Amino acid sequence: MKVVLVRHTSVGIDKGLNYGWSDVPVASTFPQEAQRTKETLESLTGGKTFDAVFASPLKRARFLADYCGFSNPLLDDRLKEFNMGDWELKRYDDLWKDDLYYREWMKDYLHLPTPHGETFPQFYHRVTSFLDELKTRPYKRAVIFAHGGVLLCAGIYAGLFDVEHAYGADGHLVDFGGIEAVSL
Asked: One digit per residue, pLDDT tens: the chain, 184 residues?
């Protein structure tokens, strides 16, 4: 099965804020960014349709799905971004300065949990449980509107890169409005 994953466009909040599960608004540049994403998606598909359309329930993903012509995607909580817990909507710089645990977490974010949030293995399991279920369906082509972390998990799952190279300077985080295609 061919799965096209689409990352939401830029968000309308101050740069430097954690916003994983928070339902933040899209940026004022949404129409321009969404149009570029729609055009890229159309060129990738060559006019072919999708058997199924899925989206994170967070509005930044749903709005892009709608803009791209998919007004009723199947929503699934497993497609939400990484849950930052108590760090939601807090500034990275403030956390680095004031929260010793945050500094430890940044050194080992692949294993340590966020306070009242989740660990990367929990996040990965959540996303891959969705992908495992998707593989059991009779679809040939599906599209998913989601978040950067979800696309990273899908890339790891599909063998595009390993977890150690997913994040950071040598990472594979797709730009806002970007697209990643995998085969399941």
From this structure: 999 999 999 999 999 999 999 999 999 999 999 999 999 999 998 878 999 999 999 999 999 999 999 999 999 999 999 999 999 999 999 999 999 999 999 999 899 999 999 999 999 999 999 999 999 999 999 999 999 999 999 999 999 988 887 877 677 899 999 999 999 9
Contacts of 70 (CB under 8 A, 6+ apart): 50, 53, 55, 143, 145
CA 173 to chain centre: 9
Answer yes or no: are the C-beta atoms of 24 and 13 closer than 8 Å. Answer: yes
State how far the Cα of 26 lies from the Cα of 74, in Å rounded to an integer: 20
**Tokens at 86, concatenated:** 């108590």
Residues paired with 179 in a beta bridge? 6
Structure token pair of residue 58: 């967070």
- Do β-strands 179-183 and 2-7 pair in parallel, antiparallel, or remain unpaired? antiparallel
What span, in angstroms and rounded, lies between the C-alpha atoms of 184 and 182? 7
Residue 38 CA to residue 41 CA, distance in Å, equals 5
